[in-house]
């Protein structure tokens, strides 16, 4: 194919270490083109790595942690707890007689701690006025880009257990 | 001077300069693509990862083609 | 460069060595002359010849250099060896058909004429051509040399190698190339016939 370079009759070392300064400058340019192509390959490999991660990511398993007792908090009351690790702060809200929801307390904007506003019936972030819905944690208003990660709750008799994390 | 300037006389100089500029632009595009893919993946939208990988591969092939072109024009211009 | 050419006419050399002394003045190699001054047959004749580097188009010294220390620029001047690269191996000394490069073992460096690049690159004449009283070494425009009886040539035969140089040599009119093979100049007829360049 005429597009491909033909094998040169001069040995490569003579081309790359040319006696003539004008040819030397030129080989530098060619080497730079090769270097850029190599960098492009590196980027492509990076993309492939992300693809591999997405493909082979295993579903994370979460521990089962007791959050509290049923009837421990009043209706429209809250309880703070940590799940899954002691560093992940979460908020439990009793939205009705038998209805409980729990979310991660880290605002998805810049990780300020959100609080439950009983008056407005929503989760509010005091830093930049980001508001989240109590029903599903979706963003009602403000700069947060993603909904609040929700904690899956399970009832075991009189105990409330946190068993999973969704959306983080 | 009886001897002409070898460098200025080099044919295909403009073609090589253009190809180099194009490679550079493609590289910028690819860097952005990688960044955007990673951001999307970490945000949970794993659906964009495969098309992005394909695009990145195409851009890389474009760079390879341009590199071969630069080498070819360079070889041609060296022939006396 | 700048329309000038360098012409060497050994027949005009009077052996005053002004070129040698003038070359020594150059700041790039102060005190060491780069002129190859030749007493042709000291015992037999007063004839002498002064030579500068011939700045070949395909410089053999540069081709032979293992460290890529000798470079030829766009203007045709073959530069003296690059100081960080030269290892003083003498490859160039052995390779040059004219015997121009000089090795200085005390600092492991080769030095040779670079046609006073600091002067010629800005349009001045090299030191040797400036001081030569008989203009055996001259740096003039081609029409300035046209008046001489000898004619310039810059093609040399060195065995099987054809060497084309930047510097011209003045030779009798009608001579198109100068042969450097020593056998060519021997009077034994049989050797001469055998050694004709291809």
Description:
The complex is a heterotrimer of chains A (168), B (80) and C (198). With 168 residues, chain A is of the alpha+beta class. Chain A has two domains: 12-56; 65-166, Rieske Iron-sulfur Protein, CATH 2.102.10.10. Helix content of chain A is 24%, strand content 30%. Chain A has two helices and ten strands. In chain A, the strands form two sheets. In chain A, strands 1-10-9-4-3-2 form a six-stranded antiparallel sheet, with no helix packed on it. A four-stranded antiparallel sheet of chain A has the order 5-6-7-8, with no helix packed on it. Chain A is elongated, with a radius of gyration of 29 Å. Chain A starts with 11 loop residues before the first helix and ends with a strand. Chain B is mainly alpha-helical and 80 residues long. In chain B, helix 2 (13-43) packs antiparallel against helix 3. Chain B is elongated, with a radius of gyration of 19 Å. The relative contact order of chain B is 0.16. The model of chain C has no long low-confidence stretch (mean pLDDT 89). Chain C has helices at residues 18-24, 60-64, 91-95, 117-120, 127-131, 142-145, 189-194; strands at 5-8, 36-39, 48-51, 102-104, 109-111, 137-140, 151-158, 161-171, 178-179. Helices cover 18% and strands 22% of the residues of chain C. Chain C has 198 residues and is an alpha/beta fold. In chain C, the strands form three sheets. In chain C, strands 6-1-8-7-9 form a five-stranded mixed sheet. In chain C, strands 2-3 form a two-stranded antiparallel ribbon. In chain C, strands 4-5 form a two-stranded antiparallel ribbon. Chains A and B meet through helix 2 of A and helix 2 and helix 3 of B.
Helical residue percent of chain B? over 70%
The major beta sheet of chain B can be summarized as: none
Count of distinct structural domains of chain A: 2
How many structural domains can be distinguished in the coordinates of chain B?
Answer: 1
CATH class category label of the largest domain in chain A: Mainly Beta
Unreliable residue stretches of chain A: none
What does the overall shape of chain A look like?
elongated
Query: Can you write the helix and strand succession of chain B as a string?
Result: HHH
Number of strands of chain B: 0
Beta-strand content bin of chain A: 25-35%
Helix content of chain A: 10-25%
Mean pLDDT of chain B: 81
Oligomer: heterotrimer
């Amino acid at each position: 194919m005429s597009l491909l370079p033909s094998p040169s009759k001069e040995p490569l070392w003579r081309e790359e270490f040319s006696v003539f300064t004008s040819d030397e400058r030129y080989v530098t340019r060619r080497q730079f083109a090769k270097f850029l192509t190599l960098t492009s390959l590196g980027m492509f490999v990076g993309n492939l790595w992300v693809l591999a991660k997405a493909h082979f990511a295993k579903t994370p398993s979460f521990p089962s942690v007791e959050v509290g007792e049923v009837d421990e908090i009043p209706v429209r009351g809250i309880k703070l707890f940590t799940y899954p690790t002691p560093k992940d702060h979460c908020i439990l809200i009793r939205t009705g007689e038998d209805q409980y929801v729990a979310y991660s307390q880290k605002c998805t904007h810049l990780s300020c701690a959100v609080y439950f506003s009983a008056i407005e019936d929503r989760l509010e972030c005091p830093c930049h006025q980001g508001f989240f819905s109590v029903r599903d944690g979706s963003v009602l208003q403000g700069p947060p880009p993603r909904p609040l990660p929700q904690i899956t709750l399970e009832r075991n008799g009189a105990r409330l257990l946190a068993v999973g994390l969704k959306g983080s | 001077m009886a001897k002409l300037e070898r460098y200025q006389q080099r044919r295909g100089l403009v073609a090589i300069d253009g190809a180099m500029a194009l490679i550079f632009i493609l590289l910028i595009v690819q860097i952005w693509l990688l960044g955007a893919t990673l951001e999307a993946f970490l945000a949970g939208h794993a659906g964009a990862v495969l098309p992005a990988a394909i695009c990145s591969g195409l851009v890389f092939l474009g760079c390879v083609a341009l590199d071969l072109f630069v080498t070819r024009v360079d070889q041609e211009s060296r022939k006396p | 460069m700048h329309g000038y050419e360098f012409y060497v006419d050994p027949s005009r050399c009077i052996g005053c060595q002004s070129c040698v002394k003038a070359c020594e003045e150059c700041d790039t190699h102060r005190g060491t002359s780069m002129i190859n001054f030749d007493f042709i047959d000291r015992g037999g004749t007063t004839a002498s010849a002064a030579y500068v580097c011939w700045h070949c188009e395909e410089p053999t010294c540069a081709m032979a250099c293992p460290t890529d220390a000798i470079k030829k620029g766009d203007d045709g001047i073959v530069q003296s060896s690059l100081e960080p690269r030269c290892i003083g191996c003498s490859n160039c000394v052995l390779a040059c058909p004219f015997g121009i490069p000089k090795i200085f073992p005390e600092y492991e460096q080769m030095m040779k004429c670079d046609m006073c690049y600091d002067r010629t690159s800005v349009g001045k004449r090299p030191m040797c051509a400036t001081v030569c009283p008989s203009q055996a070494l001259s740096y003039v425009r081609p029409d300035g040399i046209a008046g001489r009886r000898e004619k310039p040539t810059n093609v040399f035969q060195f065995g099987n190698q054809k060497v084309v140089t930047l510097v011209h040599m003045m030779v009798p009119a009608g001579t198109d190339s100068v042969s450097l093979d020593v056998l060519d100049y021997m009077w034994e007829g049989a050797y001469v016939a055998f050694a004709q360049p291809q």
